[in-house]
TrEMBL record, chain A:
The chain crosses the membrane at residues 7-28, 48-67, 79-101, 121-142, 149-167. This is Tripartite tricarboxylate transporter TctB family protein. It comes from the Bacteria. Keywords: Membrane, Transmembrane, Transmembrane helix. The keyword Membrane applies.
UniProtKB/TrEMBL annotation, chain B:
Gene3D superfamilies: Bordetella uptake gene, domain 1 (3.40.190.150), Periplasmic binding protein-like II (3.40.190.10). The keyword Transferase does not apply. It comes from the Bacteria. This is Tripartite tricarboxylate transporter family receptor. Residues 1-23 form the signal peptide. Keywords: Receptor, Signal. Belongs to the UPF0065 (bug) family. It comes from Tritonibacter multivorans. It holds the Pfam family TctC.
From TrEMBL, chain C:
Residues 36-477 form the DUF112 domain. Keywords: Membrane, Transmembrane, Transmembrane helix. The keyword Transmembrane applies. It comes from Tritonibacter multivorans. Pfam families: TctA. This is Tripartite tricarboxylate transporter TctA family protein. PANTHER family: TRICARBOXYLIC TRANSPORT PROTEIN.
């Protein structure tokens, strides 16, 4: 019995994805076919280019089966733990960044957040909370301990970025103030 | 050429007196988001950004430009149509976004947004390199009849339809190449990838220098730079391309905010010596201000005639 | 206006750099903003290059939005912004050698080979001399490469524009893409996969139809994926994640840094220069040749330069001289000259064809696209008699390169040697802060939260690609070129009146397509080592 190597598995995944892309996703989710008829002529349709991408992926999948290789790198369980944790911190950080301002404003502010998004201190709430949480969590996770130092680094970073972007430039908006 | 209307005239003519008084005191309740439907760095984008800059300077408003490009301006239309109607969201689009794009995409009607004011028109012409030796569109048609393959560069589907109809009415078949933006047509002409193409005004410098010629006017009236160029109607085509750049707000926009923004934009666009005015004069033949009900009528007419153009080209 | 000739354009380009808006005046000489920005860029580049964990790419990603905020979206912004990026690019190449020599830690991946001889030299007390040799070789290689670029790019562009029609241009783009996919990284299959994913990503939400294709009808995908979010996500954020994981996995402290004592003669003599010059020359030639091919990176150039020189050195060295790998100045020279001479030549395909060959070029294209008014490609080099502003910008860019080299020759070396201290910054603090800074900069440019989500998501994708040993570079280049390939193919198809065989009708186009297939096939057959 032989183990399925990572490259072979990856190749299999590519082939499956390419086929789904070419025969299900593209036909169902694109308006025009490979070519279409317009003004009495054939012109290139919107499906052609994505089908080319699918062909690249398919070819890559087939080649992965045949390619000679010396190493067989693959993500380990440890890798998955790490990226899972980082994704979680990112998710929390970005959500805080987006929503903490509007939530705080709806409780304490006189107007809705949309109108206050260029007014201090409201405009900083989301970035300070979200940004420092993200940095603090990632530092603590990488160091495997919670420290005051990480807290101060996170806070200093957020203040530093505000000083870098917000104070000198009048028309620069920090997240999430550009599109609330 | 259209008369340049001064901002004061606009304010008086297109809006009721009571709204006008209110409009003078109007200030946005927060920062204004200005959605720009054109790619960064192009003529239309620069125009919008200059207007934003001068609105901030003259009115003390805070204007935040945001690029939402694609789909003939429909992405920008979608970005504003349901936004709060208090004057804090406006979009810079082109009349065809509310005309041909909407008709062919079957996506809504001009009433989905509130047109605020136009800023400038276009000098749409059929252009070719001077060394081709052609002087009118008729010469191109002759060349095509003589068996030459003619590549016709267009930057929008509506212009593609017009190019197709020119061919069809005259018994020739152009190879119509669609590209993104007027600059790409100019590059295609220069590189020899195309033989003729549409230019919305970008060709002015090259025409003045004698490197390019305007073979026909795609407007209902002659071109400023080449008044002798024939109209498309001389070749049996009764469709024209008279695009104008305009600002629009969300559906059912507050009339006071609409009037205030319209007159503020008209003011910066026509202010002589201002950056926006200088740019409009250089690139688009001067500011062209149409606002209020007159603008609504123009937009509606464009919407209706686009349907006819699309139908004619689909035959 | 009088007709403009070639030299008028060169002169206008030089003037555009030096006579632009004034930043300040020094002893009565006015210094233009562009000149100042090139200097700033160079300094920043040397600093980030000398800081392990950072690099030119991160610095460019973060500074681009700030620069655009300062200079705005108009053609006047192009030279200061791109000059700054060029400064960063050149500075980081030089700076990367500092920690490599002093602490055996390459500051940038390119500097890995420099550690082989640089660190032994530093250990034997010749740290300053090693730094001087590295600086001299690096800047010489870089300058040589720039000269080649300035001479070749316009000719290549004119050649392309004169002889290639739309079908040939399409075929050339396909050839470049398959070449990049095949040569970047260790595996052609993985390169192709990376490239295919990049193409797929750029085709989401774009296209000619009014329905945004492949968007599942969602609003988030209907405008397509912002190019900056995709590029910075896969390239920068993915690398940050990967680096953070190493720290996390090792959980090690940075520990005490050993500083070697300096002994003996630290000066760089003419005799030294004469000794190392043949090595610099050979490596510069290798680096420039390799650099002119899109997608082949400086790491390969450094490896080949080092290996070739090693073979030669072993034959000719005097007994008693240190061998390669034991502190031979020639080793440093061979490596640094090779990896630095890639950067100039790498801009040949960018400026003449609009095809980015490496990450630095990717950021130059990103800057040009964000600001507008300059579209790198053959159309730039139209020597038209009425003013072609893009050509002036192109010659302005060449001028900023020469300027950056001059600054690098004079103050760069001194500055670089003072930066050993940067290695002490703990990476576990630096990297999360850089992550937040990157996201904030991205937002400043895109003003949309979805850009942050996209960038974070593409960061995770980039991370997984690295864990599968898939290079992210073909992804990025596929993303950048995908739109152009589709547009050119559409135009070529329409221009030929809807001929389905347009890619094979003309001999040149058919040859390009055959080469594209051959490149993939050959790289599949040939077993390769796993290159980083």
């Amino acid at each position: 019995m032989r183990n399925l190597s990572a490259s072979t598995a990856l190749g299999l995944g590519c082939i499956a994805f390419a086929l789904i892309l070419a025969f299900i996703w593209i036909p169902l989710d694109v308006e025009t076919w490979l070519v279409e008829r317009k003004r009495g002529r054939y012109i290139v349709g919107d499906s052609l280019a994505p089908t080319l991408a699918a062909a690249f992926i398919l070819l890559a999948g087939v080649m992965l089966w045949f390619e000679r290789r010396s190493r067989d790198p693959r993500p380990t369980r440890q890798n998955l733990t790490f990226i899972g944790a980082i994704s979680f911190f990112g998710l929390v950080g970005i959500l805080l960044m987006r929503w903490s301002g509007p939530v705080v404003t709806s409780v304490f502010g006189a107007e809705e957040y949309r109108l206050l998004r260029d007014t201090a201190p409201w405009k900083y709430i989301g970035f300070v909370l979200g940004g420092s949480t993200m940095v603090f969590c990632i530092v603590s996770f990488v160091e495997q301990r919670v420290s005051w130092r990480a807290f101060w680094v996170a806070l200093a970073a957020v203040v530093g970025i505000i000083a870098l972007y917000d104070l000198p430039f009048d028309d620069v908006l920090l997240p999430p103030n550009g599109d609330v | 050429m259209r008369k340049l209307l001064k901002s004061a005239v606009v304010a008086a003519a297109v809006i009721g007196t009571s709204t006008a008084t209110l409009a003078e005191d109007w200030a946005p309740p927060g920062p204004i988001k200005m959605v720009i439907a054109f790619a960064a760095g192009g003529g239309a984008d620069t125009q919008a950004r200059l207007i934003a800059e001068e609105l901030e300077a003259t009115q003390g408003w805070k204007v935040i430009p945001e690029q939402v490009t694609g789909k003939g301006g429909l992405n920008a239309v979608n970005a504003v149509k349901d936004a709060p109607a208090d004057g804090t969201t406006i979009a810079m689009i082109v009349t065809s976004s509310l005309g041909y794009s909407m008709v062919t995409a079957k996506a809504g009607s001009p009433q989905d947004v509130t047109p605020i004011t136009t800023t400038a028109g276009t000098q749409m012409a059929v252009v070719a390199r001077a060394d081709k030796g052609w002087s009118t569109l008729g010469d191109v048609i002759e060349a095509a009849k003589g068996g030459e393959d003619i590549r016709f560069g267009v930057m929008s589907p509506a212009l593609g339809d017009i190019a197709y109809l020119v061919g069809k009415e005259n018994g020739v078949d152009f190879n119509i190449i669609s590209v993104k933006g007027g600059k790409a047509v100019m590059n295609g002409l220069n590189a020899g990838d195309m033989d003729v193409g549409f230019g919305a005004g970008i060709q002015a410098k090259a025409v003045a220098a004698g490197d390019m010629v305007e073979l026909a006017s795609a407007r209902s009236e002659p071109l400023i730079n080449s008044p002798e160029a024939p109209l498309l109607s001389e070749y049996g085509v009764n469709f024209v391309s008279e695009l104008a750049f305009l600002f629009a707000g969300p559906k059912d926009m507050d009339p006071v905010a609409r009037a205030a923004i319209a007159s503020a934009i008209a003011e910066v666009a026509t202010q002589e010596g201002g950056k926006a005015n200088a740019f409009l004069t250089k690139g688009f033949g001067g500011a062209m201000i149409i606002a209020g009900e007159e603008l609504e009528a123009v937009v509606q007419k464009g919407f209706e005639s686009s349907g006819a153009l699309a139908a004619a080209a689909a035959e | 206006m009088a007709d403009l000739g070639t030299f008028d354009y060169v002169w206008l380009g030089i003037l555009a750099v030096f006579q632009g808006p004034e930043a300040f005046s020094l002893l009565g000489v006015s210094v233009s903003i562009t000149v100042m920005m090139v200097a700033f860029g160079l300094i920043l580049g040397i600093v980030v290059g000398a800081t392990p964990g950072l690099g030119g790419v991160i610095a460019m990603a973060i500074s681009l939005p700030i620069l655009i905020s300062i200079f705005g979206f108009n053609a006047d912004a192009l030279l200061p912004v791109m000059g700054f990026l060029i400064g960063v690019m050149k500075g980081s190449t030089v700076g990367g050698a500092v920690p490599a020599i002093l602490f055996n830690t390459p500051g940038t991946p390119d500097a890995y080979m420099t550690t082989l001889d640089g660190y032994p030299m530093a250990q034997s007390g010749k740290a300053r001399k090693a730094l001087k040799i590295s600086h001299f070789s690096s800047v010489t290689g870089d300058t040589f490469s720039d000269v080649v670029l300035i001479v070749c790019a316009p000719f290549l562009a004119i050649l392309v524009e004169a002889h290639l029609d739309l079908p040939e241009k399409t075929a050339l783009l396909i050839l470049s893409l398959s070449f990049i996919a095949a040569v970047v990284g260790g595996s052609a299959a993985k390169g192709l996969l990376s490239c295919g994913l990049g193409l797929l990503a750029v085709y989401i939400g774009t296209g000619e139809d009014f329905y945004p294709r492949l968007s599942f009808g969602t609003a988030a995908l209907s405008d397509g994926i912002p190019i900056t979010a995709a590029v910075i996500g896969v390239l920068v954020i993915g690398a940050i994640f990967s680096e953070l994981e190493n720290l996390w996995a090792q959980k090690r402290q940075t520990g005490a840094i050993q500083v070697a004592k300096e002994e003996g003669d630290q000066r760089l003599h003419w005799a030294d220069i004469r000794r190392i010059f043949p090595y610099i020359g050979r490596s510069a030639l290798i680096g420039t040749t390799i650099g002119a091919l899109p997608g082949v990176g400086s790491t390969l150039a450094a490896t080949i330069g080092y290996a070739t020189s090693k073979r030669l050195y072993t034959k000719t060295k005097k007994p008693g001289d240190p061998a390669f790998g034991q502190g031979a100045p020639e080793g440093i020279a061979a490596t640094e000259a090779a990896n630095s001479s890639v950067s100039g030549a790498n801009l040949i395909p960018v400026l003449s064809l609009g095809i980015p060959g490496n990450t630095a070029a990717v950021f130059l294209i990103l800057a040009a696209e964000s600001i507008g008014g300059f579209n790198p490609g053959p159309a730039v080099f139209q020597f038209s008699s009425d003013l072609n502003p893009e050509l002036v910008i192109a010659f302005g860019l060449f001028t900023t390169m020469i300027l950056a080299n001059l600054l690098n020759w004079t103050v760069g070396g001194v500055f670089m040697r003072s930066l050993g201290v940067l290695v002490r910054i703990p990476k576990q603090y630096l990297l999360p802060v850089v992550l937040l800074l990157t996201l904030a900069s991205l937002y400043v440019q895109e003003t949309s939260m979805s850009a942050i989500w996209f960038a974070f998501g593409f960061g995770i994708l980039g991370y997984f690609m690295m864990r599968f040993a898939i290079s992210p570079l073909p992804f990025v280049i596929g993303f950048i070129l995908g739109g152009r390939i589709e547009d050119t193919a559409r135009q070529a198809f329409s221009a030929t009146g809807g001929d389905p065989w347009f890619l094979f009708k003309s001999p040149i186009a058919a040859m390009f397509m055959l080469c594209a297939l051959a490149v993939i096939f050959v790289s599949l057959r040939k077993p390769k080592g796993d290159m980083p």
